[in-house]
Amino acid sequence: MKTKIVITFLLLTSHIFAQEQVKQDNKETFYIIGDNQPISSDSLYSTETQKKIVLDAFNAESQSKLGKFEVPGDNTPIQFYIKNVKKFFSVLNKNFSKTSNKLTQKNLKYIPLTSLEEIQNSKHYTAIPKTAKFKLIGIELCEGSIIDARLELENDDAYFYFEIISPVSILHYTRKSSHRDYLEFSHYVRKKNDIIYNNDQLKTLKVRLIDVLDYHPSLGNNYVPDDITYNFPSKEDANDANVNKRRVYKIINNTKLQHVLDLRAYTDALGLFSNEANGLFQIEGQADFFIHPFSFPRTAFYYLKKVSPFVRYSRLDNDEDFLTATPNNVGIYNFNESKLQLLQRSNLEMGLDVNIINFRFFKESPFWMSLRSPLTYHVTPIKTGVNVENINFKSLGYGIAADIELKRYNNFGLNLGYELKGYSYLGEYSSNMLQEPSYLKTQAVKAEIFFYPNDKKSQSIFLRMKSIRDVSTGRASFFQLQFGYKFTIGITPVKSQ
């Protein structure tokens, strides 16, 4: 009779946030250590609560300074750029002069707007914003890239909004971003009813990303984990007395082992409440190792982005934690008719997924698509007799898989997957009077619903459904319905403000 297993999920340490102000060379410095609890330098140790926040954070083991972001102070003038000079002047109904042609050399791909004499002498110049003042910038980091950035500028007449249209790699930010990455004009909002800008003119404007967001990695720590959102400056900084100074945000990374693993603990509803031989208790761990986390320029297309090794342990019911082989007329045991149960009753699975391509068509798309190659190693106990020890039968799976990640909200989404795999068998079992089954080919359809119960993306509840079919014979299949808890902790995050 099956025993009910109650899984108690323990939350790991909650993240802590503190910000320390340092006045130096016209810059304001803040330390981002965890959740958004900014503390000024003057009051850093003024209360017992603030003392505990700081001491607890710095007493944690294996912490390192990942790097720092720098943003301009409030009201800092930001230069506009244009890329296509011919198009810009055609919008202004002016002829393209030789003077402008000299500015379009390869080493001057983007031209500062105020450097063009034609614009300065144009009657239209007063209708074009020359510069605007910095207000704030928000960024979303995912797997080594800035996948979204939103900038707000203003002048006396209007607010201007810019955004990136393709991912920007944070890993080679210091070498390539200064001449390659620009924010595109999105829209503007008027402050005065008598001010009207020409949208065709404004759409040619760009802002150099490094002018409004600079990143300097610490030596040996040039890495950024996924799923983090920052707003610079935060709401807590807005009332600071030195808002006009350039600001530096230092990022603290916790590199303990449990902070770089994707861990899952779950059970199978069909294993608990029906006769399916599915794992009653399962624990799974996975880590991502990035190989080439760089997209093609001005696209969201990645290739060979990462490999993800994983391991899974399953605890089955005592009566079902093995596969029974039957003897033939000469006493040789085989299980060819039930070979699919090598996967269903496997108590140990390990392997890796090689991400071949990963892309989305445009930034506003709610889903990412990927193609990967899975490689798996299974260990399944085989019983060949009543008083005989179980044999650990080993199999190796390999194939191709496609996945779609679709998000309904930022904390609720659906992962869909399709997988084709073939299995070979490892080891020699003739001494155990066990015959290997014929080649196994399977197809699997997967669907996983996930939900973040709070504002921490590192922890989620999930429901995963999986159907596996033996396509080599077409006669066998099984279904899994798993629910449990997932916790992934990387860099200490800052809540979006």
Question: Would you kindly provide a written description of the structure presented here, covering whatever features stand out?
Answer:
This protein is 11% helix and 44% strand. With 497 residues, the protein is mainly β. The chain folds into 3 domains: 22-69, no CATH class; 77-232, no CATH class; 260-488, Lipocalin (Beta Barrel), CATH 2.40.128. Strands 4, 5, 6, 7, 8, 9, 10, 11, 12 and 14 form a 10-stranded antiparallel β-sheet that branches. It is elongated and about 95 Å long. It starts with 21 loop residues before the first strand and ends in a 9-residue tail after the last strand. This is Outer membrane protein beta-barrel domain-containing protein.
CATH class of the largest domain: Mainly Beta
Mean pLDDT, nearest integer? 76
Supply Rg.
29 Å
Structural class: mainly beta
How is the main sheet built? 10 strands, antiparallel
Tally of discrete structural domains:
3
CATH topology of the largest domain: Lipocalin
Number of strands: 30
Overall, the morphology is elongated
Low-pLDDT runs? 1-24, 34-38, 93-108, 120-126, 490-497
Helix tally equals 9
Distance between the termini: 52 Å
Please bin the fraction of helical residues: 10-25%
SS strand fraction: 35-45%
Q: So, CATH architecture of the largest domain?
A: Beta Barrel
Q: Could you outline the blueprint of secondary structure elements for this entry?
A:
Elements: E1 22-24, E2 27-32, H1 48-59, E3 63-71, E4 77-79, E5 81-82, H2 85-91, H3 98-102, E6 111-112, H4 117-120, E7 131-142, E8 145-154, E9 158-163, E10 168-169, H5 173-180, E11 182-190, H6 199-202, E12 205-208, H7 209-212, E13 214-217, E14 228-232, E15 246-254, E16 262-268, H8 269-273, E17 281-286, E18 289-290, E19 301-303, E20 306-315, E21 323-324, E22 326-327, E23 333-334, H9 341-344, E24 348-359, E25 367-383, E26 391-409, E27 412-426, E28 440-451, E29 459-470, E30 477-488
Parallel strand pairs: 2-15, 21-25
Antiparallel strand pairs: 1-2, 3-13, 3-15, 4-7, 5-6, 5-12, 7-8, 7-14, 8-9, 8-10, 9-11, 11-12, 16-17, 16-30, 17-20, 18-20, 19-24, 20-24, 22-23, 24-25, 25-26, 26-27, 27-28, 28-29, 29-30
